[in-house]
Amino acid sequence: MDGWRSGRALAKKYKTFHPCLMGSSRPTVVILCGGRGTRLRERTETVPKALVEIGARPILWHVIGIYAAQGFERFLLATGYLGEMVEDFVASEHWPRGVEVECVDTGVDTPTGGRIARFGERLRGEPFCATYADGVANVDLGALLDFHGAHGDLASVTVVQPRLQWGVAELADDDRVEGFVEKPRSEHWINGGFFCFEPGALDYIGEDSVLEREPLEQLAADGQLHAHRHDGFWDCMDTYKDAVKLNDLWTAGKAPWRAFATVSDIDHTLGGSMSDTVARDRVS
Questions:
Q1: I need a labelling partner for 247 at 20 to 30 A (CA). Which of 44, 94, 122, 152 fits?
Q2: Residue 73: closest CA among 53, 96, 57
Q3: Tens digits of per-residue pLDDT, 213-226?
């Protein structure tokens, strides 16, 4: 089996292949990787959160892999805290042919919305995607783009129902305990990243804004934000415990995002050989 078919077969196995993804251009992807990662301080005192490793590779590498293996080629990394280390990683990595990764220093303490706002000119007035550097999923990005294009409004966010950290008690009306459920999925949908934005969404995102507050709230109030429901695997590396869990999944060969997150698979899917196609820039 040749490389292309091998990558396609893996994608089908994990139900993340979408026919429209290959052989056509995809929007630029902005990856937010400038935060301090204070809840993961066991690891982030000396390295940025984006470089904390899963399976001996930075989680940022996994996130880029999820997109790159589904046909995305241009990545803008919004760096900040220990951003020089992210730049060094990007410069030393061998990315698949056609993939371009650019690091932009968006400031150490800049909030998430402000980081995206600083990419205005680089986004060239075109639709773009965005996500966090600490979240992995077996999300079908082709289906997400189709969903976004179908509704015709300014923004889409992938929403997920994560598993709770605790077991829950099931109670009867008279407060008798009927049983327990170990770490069920939440009944509520939360922001899982993996956004799509039209250029007009940038009008909602200010230099000092927190993306998850004013911009998304106002987009929602104006009827311009839609939720793409993802009911497959999703997790984020928020704490040391999360990092251990994701590492265990990867080591055991049970990581649901794995079909799209190895460099060899990315290269097969794009049909190319390894080459350095890295652009770096520093802006104040």
A1: 94
A2: 96
A3: 999 999 999 999 99
